[in-house]
Design a protein that fits this description.
Elements: H1 9-23, H2 30-36, H3 42-51, E1 69-75, H4 82-91, H5 96-112, H6 117-124, H7 128-136, E2 140-146, H8 165-179, E3 184-188, H9 194-207, E4 211-215, H10 222-233, E5 237-240, H11 246-258, E6 263-266, E7 278-284, H12 302-313, E8 316-321, H13 326-333, E9 338-342, E10 353-358, H14 359-364, E11 368-369, E12 372-373, H15 374-385, E13 389-393, E14 402-405, E15 422-424, E16 429-431, E17 438-440, E18 453-456, H16 460-470, E19 476-479, H17 489-498, E20 504-507, E21 520-525, H18 529-532, H19 539-551, E22 562-567, H20 573-579, H21 583-597, E23 604-612, H22 615-629, E24 636-641, E25 647-648, E26 651-660, H23 664-683, E27 691-696
Parallel strand pairs: 3-8, 3-9, 4-6, 4-7, 5-6, 7-8, 10-22, 13-20, 13-21, 19-20, 21-22
Antiparallel strand pairs: 1-2, 11-12, 14-18, 15-16, 16-17, 23-26, 23-27, 24-26, 25-26
């Protein structure tokens, strides 16, 4: 091959790579090219050669999944009789470690049936040296057995659940609706025993040879449910969520495809598993916002996708909630869903008494101590004296949501996002909860050089610290994402709280979602005001659901639970509905507001978000797109406008909201035209680098 010389280094590298490829008939892996030409930007050069048609690229998929194998120890059958064992042990008396290993083997085998090598070495306190010696003497053999990566232990004892008269009636109504192929909304107050009915329906599905998908909004909820499911249904369960590694998820994927996993319990992504014979879908806490995927794409609503899947495979589907979403209950009033209600708690429990503490009056009367009103502190003291448990709810993690210079009003901001930084005392750092950047704690204000920088407001960390000061003998734990970073930490915390090894649990909305603790008799909401201030048309619905659900953690067994809500907005109508446990009253008001202002469920929404590092480019692109979108018929356009957080990860944001009637033809036509307009805009040179995100039902 003739080498063409050039002063351009990219051309030289292209020729070098081209020459290397021409000499190797089998081709090279990209990683090999990068090793051969470490100074070259190999990807760019190869992309250039590919565009010109000089080379071909083959993509090869390789299965990286490997079965997990565990070693098991087995005794040579010739030593099974009593006489042989006696002779063998007599010979081992001169090797005490080998004898200890052998005796431990006999003990484990009698107790468990099989003897894993790891367990044998651990319990006998010996090493592989002693084991290998016995293998060499042909006393033991070691075999590798395929093992599950996901193993469940410490299951609850099996208890036969007898449905109450109300539950039995609800169960029969659900079965009647299933016969008519109807979607069922099981509207049961917290503690009414919806799970008991789910279990009965699961048993029915398994008897018919069907698979069951049990969707939960948060993986933290699986710790309790999985033990109950395992106790009743054994190893027919598979669990699937993002905290598992790739190998673990592949294992569940294959078991689902093969039909070995009969019951799949998981978060929203488990909806995408390859079910072989799906017969029942249960969506517990169907109202929860976690069922909506926001980042990354695909941005789907798992509840709605489950309804489509159930229709496609002719599976029954049941939505369960004590505080149904407005959309789901609208479908009940519209006749699309059947509703079955449970309005009494299972057993002797009753709904807790909810009291509102007006913080304005409390501060005026000087009846506050730190973060807590005197009334809340008194109730906490009583609960601890009665050996009861307490849950304190604050929907902000960290120690302090922001710092403030008292001299000039400066607040530390993230360099990459338009948000204030949250102080975390356990790391003594300032954290951005949007891009995960971490900054050192600020003592001196960089604007005025004042040392009057103080922490303002409070999060779960500060509550935990204040509680420890107020009740030094109490055992306190936090239940938020910062405290649950390790894969099994949430399970450990839930188990400790169930076993009453924790007295006070301080948490964010994670403590709200379906957890069942029978010894909790007091729930305190430290500040309901921050929940009500969020700029979203669903804010009242979210606040009602959060406060109702967290209230439902109290008084689950025999006691009448108490709930204390601290707020400056004691007269807010949503607070009143929570206090009265009046979902129907809340729904009637919220439903009318949605109708008056044309928001879901009375329309379909599409949110278009534009992102770019240059705010001017982002703004101009948004205006250009909005101008084109204004040509759409039968829709209403809102924006473009910057969202509350206008910059994230150094990209500026603009949003356009499109409202359209719930008419399939209009929706399809509008989606097609939006795609067309977006493609036209991004094809323009000025806007080619603008990132456009389309989110249906945001």
């Amino acid at each position: 091959m003739q080498i063409i010389k050039s002063s351009n280094p990219h051309i030289i590298k292209s020729i070098d790579i081209f020459e290397a490829l021409s000499k190797e008939t089998q081709g090279f892996k990209l990683s090999e090219i990068q090793k051969i030409f470490p100074q070259a930007s190999a990807r760019k050069v190869i992309s250039n050669l590919l565009d010109k048609g000089y080379i071909n690229v083959q993509h090869e998929l390789k299965d990286q999944y490997k079965e997990k194998k565990e070693k098991y120890v087995e005794l040579n059958p010739s030593f099974r009789d009593e006489a042989s064992l006696q002779i063998l042990m007599t010979k081992m008396e001169k090797a005490p470690k080998q004898l200890a290993l052998f005796l431990t083997y006999l003990h484990i085998e009698k107790r468990d049936g099989s003897v894993p090598q790891k367990q044998l070495l651990a319990e006998s306190e010996t090493t592989t040296t002693q084991l290998n010696a016995l293998v060499k003497k042909e006393i033991f053999t070691i075999n590798e057995v395929v093992a599950d990566r996901i193993v469940f232990s410490d299951s609850d004892p099996v208890e036969e659940i007898t449905l109450s008269e109300l539950q039995e009636t609800a169960y029969q109504k659900i079965k009647e609706s299933f016969e008519k192929k109807r979607t069922v909304l099981l509207k049961g107050i917290t503690g009414s025993g919806k799970t008991h009915i789910y279990f009965q329906l699961i048993e029915d599905a398994l008897k018919q040879g069907k698979q069951v998908l049990y969707l939960l909004p948060e993986i933290a909820l699986t710790a309790q449910i999985i033990r109950r499911l395992q106790a009743k249904f054994g190893d027919q369960i598979g669990i699937y969520h993002s905290r598992f590694g790739n190998q673990e998820r592949v294992e569940i994927w294959q078991k689902t495809l093969q039909g070995k996993a009969k019951i799949i319990l998981g978060a929203r992504s488990s909806l995408l598993l390859p079910f072989k014979n799906l017969g029942l879908i249960i969506i517990d806490e169907e109202h929860d916002t976690s069922f909506k995927q926001h980042e990354p794409a695909p941005r789907y609503q798992a509840r709605d996708a489950a309804l489509v899947l159930a229709h496609q495979v002719s599976a029954h589907i049941i939505l369960g909630s004590g505080t149904p979403s407005v959309e789901s209950f609208h479908n009940v009033t519209d006749g699309k869903y059947d509703v079955v209600e449970l309005n009494e708690r299972y057993g002797s429990g009753s709904l807790p008494k909810v009291s509102i503490i007006d913080l304005k009056k409390v501060y005026e009367a000087k009846e506050m101590k730190g973060l807590f009103s005197f009334q809340l502190l008194a109730e906490m003291k009583t609960s601890l004296e009665e050996r009861k448990q307490i849950i304190l709810f604050q929907n902000r993690r960290g120690y302090s949501p922001f710092l403030l210079c008292q001299s000039c009003g400066w607040v530390p901001q993230c360099e990459n996002c338009d948000v204030s930084l949250t102080y975390h005392k356990n790391t003594d750092k300032l954290h951005c909860h949007y891009c995960a950047s971490v900054y050192p704690y600020v003592v001196i204000c960089p604007t005025c050089n004042s040392n009057q920088v103080i922490a303002k407001s409070f999060g779960t960390e500060k509550i935990e610290e204040e509680i420890q000061k107020e009740f030094p003998k109490a055992r306190v734990a936090r239940f938020d994402w910062d405290a649950l970073k390790s894969k099994n930490k949430y399970k450990e915390l839930i188990t400790k709280f169930e076993k009453r090894q924790i007295d006070i649990l301080v948490g964010t909305q994670m403590v709200v979602k379906g957890l069942d603790f029978e010894h909790v008799n007091l729930v305190g909401v430290l500040s309901a005001d921050s929940l009500l201030a969020f700029p979203d048309y669903r804010v009242n619905e979210r606040v009602y659901q959060l406060l109702s659900q967290v209230s439902g953690r109290a008084g689950r067994k025999d006691d009448l639970g108490k709930v204390l809500i601290q707020t400056h907005r004691h007269d807010h109508p949503v607070i009143a509905f929570v206090q009265q446990h009046d979902y129907n009253g809340f729904f009637a008001v919220e439903h009318k507001h949605r109708l008056d202002f044309v928001y879901p469920p009375f329309c379909k929404l599409i949110r278009i978000t534009l992102k770019h590092r240059d705010p001017s480019v982002c703004n101009h692109a948004a205006i250009a797109l909005a101008t084109k979108l204004s040509e759409l018929t039968d829709v209403h356009l809102i924006g473009p406008a910057a969202p509350p957080v206008a910059r994230i990860r150094n990209k500026y944001l603009q949003e356009i909201l499109i409202k359209m009637p719930k008419h399939n033809m209009i929706i399809k036509r509008t989606k097609d035209e939006i795609y067309s307009y977006v493609n036209e805009m991004t094809a323009l040179r000025n806007f080619s680098t603008v990132q456009v995100i389309l989110d249906v039902d945001p």
